[in-house]
């Protein structure tokens, strides 16, 4: 495997994770929160709770696209690793880049909308916490999106491959079978040809 190519692919996918985090900060709706005296918080309007779900859904779709991109980059960029090695790379890289994108999305969101201070009453623009908490599921549930899409796309590439070695080129070409005639041997191959000069005189008994 070409180490330089691996480094290029890894760096490109890390950049893609940064782009996903930035896109989420731009596309995700921002809920308005009201901090009351005593540090109590509430949503400013009845529509704000739905924005939390919208933010999670947008990141899920972005993660699916990230996983598909990782699979295609691995298939075409790391040709020599096609197979189980490539599938393992897709899975691990999808999890790692998803975690990075979640962390960066929260940071970019707080940078764009400001931090919330419970000690100061007022109205704030909140940032959806992508490390989910509560009854939705485990905190890391969004980490499943990218690996799922990545493994699916990679398996599609494997099934669609027209080569037994998946295009790696590490299999020896099969030798063509030697054709063998099953018919009778020609007469001249059975014995020497007998001419009329070699025949003795024929006499009747």
TrEMBL record:
InterPro entries: DUF2567
Magnesium is among the record's keywords: no
UniProt keyword rRNA-binding present: no
TM spans (from-to): 7-27, 56-76, 83-102, 139-162
The organism's place on the tree of life at top rank: Bacteria
Keyword annotations from UniProtKB, A to Z: Membrane, Transmembrane, Transmembrane helix
Protein name: DUF2567 domain-containing protein
Organism: Gordonia neofelifaecis NRRL B-59395
